[in-house]
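Case 265 in the screening queue. Each case pairs one protein sequence with one candidate compound; here the compound is D-malate. For every case the pipeline is the same: read the inputs, emit a complex structure as tokens, and attach any notable structural observations.

Predict complex for case 265.
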Amino acid sequence: MKTITAAGTTFAVDDRGTGSPILFVHGFPLDHTMWEAQLESLSRTHRVIAPDLRGFGKNAVVEGTVTMEQFADDLAAILDALSVTEPVAFCGLSMGGYIGWQFFRRHLTRLSSLILIDTVAKADSEEGAAQRHKTAETVLAQGAEVMAKVMPAKLFAEGTLKHKPAIVERIKHVICSTAPSSIAAALRGMAVRSDSTPLLTDIDVPTLVICGAEDQITPPEEMRKMATAIDEAEYAEVANAGHMTPMEQPEAVTAAIRQFLANHS
Ligand code: MLT
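Case 265 output:
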């Protein structure tokens, strides 16, 4: 792990391997370790860069609201600090995908391709946004454990919950280690994010969309529709996975990314 200074703060970044760069952007409320299997395998052929986002993982606690725009600008600053000038394959899961839309909007010249995993383009509904604000208050009052209790049932496929307890425990541990005010800041940022659906028809970089067949948060029907709206996007559905496809079915996800990148190199 490296600690780098960028955008007026410090970031922990896993940066390994050589070759064309892949930027891995974790979901909420997690950290870069969710990509461990992909980093291990793909670093043999690529430079893999997986930061902890502002407020998460080993980074300093944040307060207030962190917008998807801020996260995207942080990533560009991290690439600058690491002297990455070659355009990157941007690989984001869920909130990482929401950040991906902003990276496309604001830092297009830094982008070679998009890999969007278990994510959506639309904004929150009014009720959804209100619920996020409420959850932020609950977490601030009661701690991150509240999230760690409720999230696994939503994040994982039934088979993962039953047969892969180590993965579930790892995620719970990461959530419990995250500061409540950082969780609240990202919740508020997601609540105010804009609708990126109109952007889909503008996307002109190679795009791979991956969805866990049992994803309840960003379900396959929705992700299929999203992939259809992006010109020539490839779509892969992974069996026996929920929302955390890269952890639940690491080999399938890594193979899909590897093949996609080989096809577009
Ligand atoms: C994530 O995995 O990043 C979250 O499920 C995103 C969300 O809450 O919309």
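Case 265 observations:
- Residues 165 and 263 are 35 Å apart (CA to CA).
- The domain at 2-263 is CATH 3.40.50.1820 (Rossmann fold).
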